[in-house]
Model the fold of this input.
Amino acid sequence: MQPIGKIIILVGVVLVVIGLFVWLAGDKLSWFGHLPGDIRVERKNMRFYAPITSMILVSILLSLLLWVFRKFF
Done:
């Protein structure tokens, strides 16, 4: 059970670091979510938002990060 505990702690630390980054650099990331390809529909009674391009970018960055992590560890 010890390896599972270490993994949970590591995931928690990573989430805290990501949270601090978003909190401190949030105003510099205002372009994120407003990329070309992100679908935004605003009507009188309805708002719909689908950040397709932003999520593709996040997926590519996470895949690259995990690939580098697996390559070195």
